[in-house]
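User: Hey, quick favor. My workstation is busy. Could you predict this chain's structure for me?
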Amino acid sequence: MLKKVKSFEINDLPIRSKIIVLLLVISILPSIAFGSLVNMAVDKIIEKQASEHTLQLIGQANKSLESYGETMQDVSYLISFNPDIIRFLHGDEDLDSNDNYLLKKFLQGFTTVNPEIAGILVINEEGNYLSNELYPRNIKSLTEERWYQDAARNKGIFKFIGHPTDRSLKSHVNYTDNEIVSGARAIVDPETEKVIGVVLIDLKLRVISEIIEDVRLGKSGYLMVIDDEGEVIYSPRGSLVDSIQLSWFKSDSPNSFSKKINGKNMQFIYRKSPFTNWTTIGVFSTTESVMEVRQVNFYIISILFIVLAFVIGVSYYFSYSMSRPINQLNSVMKKVESGDLSIRYRGTRADEIGMLGRSFNNMIEQINKLIALMQIQGRQKREAELQALQAHIKPHFLYNTLDTINWMSRKKGALDVAELVESLSQLFRIGLSKGNDIISLEDEMEHIHSYLKIQSARYKDKLNYSISINPELNNIKVVKLVLQPIVENAIYHGIKERRGPGNITISGEEAQGNLVLYVKDDGVGIPEERLCKLNESLAVSFDSLEETRNREAIGYGVMNVQARIRLTFGEPYGLSIESEQGKGTIVKILLPLNRKQ
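Assistant: No problem, here it is.
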């Protein structure tokens, strides 16, 4: 048969383990929760700070670009206000070669003052142009090119074109298309509001690179610039992203978006310049911000480990300080269980454990007192038995003498005397009972019957009696001589004091698992005040037979019966008395229903 395995219960754990677990739970869980909250807060703060820092750098870069853009725009305005330029745009035939030379010198002055300008070209609607740095590559009219058409459509508003593409212009310095960005502005006749020409200005790309290339976002992040069509204006060498798609810019997430490019998670933060219509974008890998968060996480986890080690040490110390006195008290209790009642709990603690230890010591003191009391009672019982044995010596001699008188009376024919002597002899025989304190109910009834026969012979017609006991109760064991003192009180204090003959009835029954004997007389009864004192005396517990000699309320014999019953069987067994003055008295004797010796 398989043995059933007991399931685990928290109450099975030692108190030291419970204290350790409790301290760990109430300290580690809040620490973990706090660390998680700090981690989340730090993650958000780092992300916010990175975004704000990048936007600040982008704002500064945009301001620098707008400054150069404003310079290009101002140059275009100054050129358009020059009267000779206006004459040239209108196709004035009076302009000679010297005038053209002076106009070129005028344009050259702008490139000298503003070295960031790579070249300036002024062209009228007929395709004639003025420039010191730029010249056509072929005979194709420049008015047919895209940059001219875009500028003409803007009606005098400066427009940033970006990198030139498919342009039939060449620079003396031989700048490539990727090394310059262009801007153009149409010159409009204020009277006819007709475009009479376009001013084209090329800006060196190195100006933009000088502004942006030193800006670093983290370890590998950088800034790049694109135009309104997504064309890259500037991107540093070794950039992580080659091109930007306009579809990546979502209206629901302004200023930032994330993309996975070439297996890397990239973060993009951008801001568009309303003047240049260009967008400056900060590009960096999200792993760099994650590394910062991981570093913070490392510090948090390190602090948690330190807290954990501290809490474990503190929990072990507190659990030991709390469980040690409990274990000591448990050890003392086990010694007491083994029978050593001299052991005591030694401790000066003022807490609950100390109080429990002192209560335990008081309990041991009480147990020792009870054991001493039981020893005293046992010794007193043995003394009482010795006294009873000594008292039986004379009744034994008297019993033998009465037996001799009985046979002599029968021999001489005095049968009444012989019967009386036989009853007296029987009385003494049962009283001796070979030294036994416990006898059968049958013997007790025979004893009281012999006593009543003697008393009837003495009082003649004054005393009548009857005994009614169920024969099934004859084998019940009772304390001997419990009826004789009660019947004696009934005769001397009840029947003898009344006028006329009196009756004594002795009966017994089984009730609620106990044996109940009744001694009833129709004597003078007991006064109410004396009856109260009598019952109060019977209700008092008896620690020894010696105390029965000090009970004067009802006499030594009745108190001796009560004491012997209580000392033998304990409470609630014993005597109780009911009486009504002038009508009689009933004494109830409650005994256990014991069929064994």
